Queue: 3 jobs
Job 1
Amino acid sequence: MTALDLHDSLVIVDGHCDTVLDLIGASFANQNLPARDFFERGSYGHIDLPRMVEGNVSCQIFALYTDDSHVEVARERTWRLLEAMEAVFARDGGIVLAKTAGDILAARAAGKRAGMLSIEGGEAIGESLEELRAFYARGVRLMGLTWNRRNAIGRGAGTGTDADGSGGLTDFGRRVVAEMERIGMVVDASHLSDEALKDLLKTARRPVIASHSNCRALVPHRRNLDDRQLEGIAATGGLIGLTFPGIFIDSDPAKVTKERVFEHLRHLISVVGSEHIGLGSDFDGFSDKFGTAFCSPAELTWLTEALLSAGYGRETIAAIMGGNWMRVLGGICG
């Protein structure tokens, strides 16, 4: 079997992208660009349906992200993004909303792609568990507790360490985690401060994921995770999503290459084993400013080929490319 044949046989899941912003004309990389049609090959950006098909991506998890300028209206902003994705699903053009792992398999069997919805930043729910449940009722199945900011749930990775030690999860944040676990939502730890992640790992009773984070041992960026954090996430039964923003791959843009991404992958395997790794591209959430290794889902075949060339077996490759996501989603969302 060739690497391409193997790749085409896999259930591939990408755990994070910011493409919804492009669909409303608010591109993360350049907010002066017009809105683009998800069903047409874009002249800018990373993900659209044609490129999902080329990369054999079975499921893309779409983040509903609130930028700094919309924090005061985070709830309304998140609903607008959700409605933009609902409009995509309503067109019945080859991608459908998935709420469970079973929905992903059903879409694949029908020759379609699946999209799952995630909130990036708990500002969207304010201080209300009822808002959390409302988003769940409309199909959201994952939530990143914070972006880089502090919110009612806890502190994000972009704010400084608190001298008083209050940089972890709040009491409300612990209630949010418990409620997410109760109703069947995946808790995403990417963007948490180190203190908040430590608190989460003590609090969680179900698998925790870091949807888009690399290895701090290779690149000491605050958004990457150290080995102890990686082990802590794996111990919950969760996974870490290998991610592609240049700044998390290497501090030197000239060294941001696919081969360097593979070094992060090899390190992840050495620390947590292949059963706790997935993909979390962050496509449409970064620009070329810090270097670019992967430009679209169509390039994911490179990872399959690299793993195969390095001697990894089909089961290991299948797990990393999507099987581990399917296990976590199946166990939590059904």
Job 2
Amino acid sequence: MMIIMKPRSTQEQLDEVIVAVEASGLTPHVIVGVEHTVIGAVGDGYLVPTETFEFLDGVESVKRITQPYKLASRQFHPEDSVFPLDGFTVGAGEIAVIAGPCSVESRSQLLETAHAIREAGANALRGGVFKPRTSPYSFQGLGEKGLEYLVEAREQTGMPIVAEIMSEAQLDVMLRYVDVLQVGARNMQNFNLLRAIGKTRLPVLLKRGLSATIDELLMSAEYILAGGNERVMLCERGIRTFETTTRNTTDINAIPVLKSLTHLPVILDPSHSTGYFEFVTAIARAAVAAGADGLIVEVHPNPAEALSDGRQSLKPEKFAEMVSQVKEIARVMGRELAPIHVSAA
């Protein structure tokens, strides 16, 4: 439930409400707004009557949240969540562009890609180092050595790095290197991993599962939020349907639907959602027109020789063209791309 404090309530009154929430077996989450402070009382709130809090000093009203996801709901948090990454902001209306290779294959491959995407206008560098592959015989990633290459690329370009985590066992090493943890589609409902990530304060890019509903995606985000980590980005990356012409089916509907249901930033992945580089730019344009807060795109200097997902990877020059077109769509929509990190080498 939501406990809405009066505009001029005191800190002492707020503290008393928090104590009452905890005494009821619920977990308090405080959001300080421009006009009101709201306390989210999360847990099995239907067993606790609203009257428990309605008559406390400083309380204006108490409302139950109808959605199964509480902290992710716009009902609880009406304003868009906005949080900074190194050099730009996510969720403030500007469009963030994350790009890089599916897999970090070598130092030279990564550095070449990093410099090219930064020059084209990317805000952050993505690169896989632990690869969840369908076949156990496919390239599984470079592991910690790949993380070291990513750090070197960050030092040279100034871009924060995004890398996928596959298990709790990798959390400590990932926290030492990366700026954003990516939870891939296959781990969207790895609830133990989500709980562990929720205890960190590192930004998270949570991808929608291959056959997951929007409600299931939001419930997965709730696991992270409930742990205290509020810096969650949702990623639509295409879903599995009967259609086989493309790798997945891009659910463009998900962008405005998620924007209506949740305050969390929404990112679209046009690479995985299509599976073919020929369609990436078109879907990236559509994502911006639909209101996405950002894009995550796979780029490789030589896709024909890529060790994973070469078919859906843009060459650097094609990526630059995509950024240019996306910028024009953003302009028409009264928006703009997030600025490039100005302190980069």
Job 3
Amino acid sequence: MSGPRSTYLDAAGFEMHITEWGERANPALVMWHGLARTGRDFDEAAAALSDSHFVLCPDTLGRGLSAWARNGAADYTFATYGEMAAAMLDHYGIDQLAWVGTSMGGLLGITLAAGSLRERITHLVINDVGPDIPADSAQRIADYVGNPPVFDTVVEYETWLRRTYAPFGAHSESFWRRMVDTSLRRTEAGKVTVHYDPAIVSLMGENNADLDVWGAYDALSAKTLLFRGEHSDVLPTGIADEMVQRGPRPALVTVKDCGHAPTFADQRQTATLREFVSS
């Protein structure tokens, strides 16, 4: 088991940060995070799977240690993210891969697996998101992502983060400590805030075509698995049931005592991932 290693590369004209795990000779696995998160969210799963896979956990443009957009909303699109993902794969010489995507990362995975990366993504894990996001849930996300708080201390920030991401469910203190350490940045005034560009919220705008992926979903040919948090408001049971009956007809894994979204930090979830991406 090898990692983590922090790497920076030019991807479609932007500096992209990637956390690498495992050996390059192993089968490739890309784990792509949610809207306002970073690639470090997958540390537990990436560490566990690095004995059998070369795991890449990128920070999306505008998040974590990757560059921010030059043109605001015009760059914060699946078209740009897809170009960056392809550049990353080309950099490593990866022809085929498994993709695990949480929330936004799942929608991006659907889009790419049915489009520009159709011949490269062989396995797709869609984590707690569907082609039809309820309007009230989208608004909830937009409200907190687009209006990031600013705190005097990290302790205050941690209280907010634990409350905001309580739907992740019960986790260890080490999990929450990493979440805090990898999710904050200092402002020019020395205050504490979130580690992303607030302009990323443009993805959640009304009638955004990036969120309309039923057509792409129905066109998927990759082997597909669907995860859902038992209490998720982003992937209602009705949409999950429809997904099971359409397109790639994935098996559905429901994670108990969890909302939006499962983190794969649990050994049982990781074991399910391992079995699927190795099949």
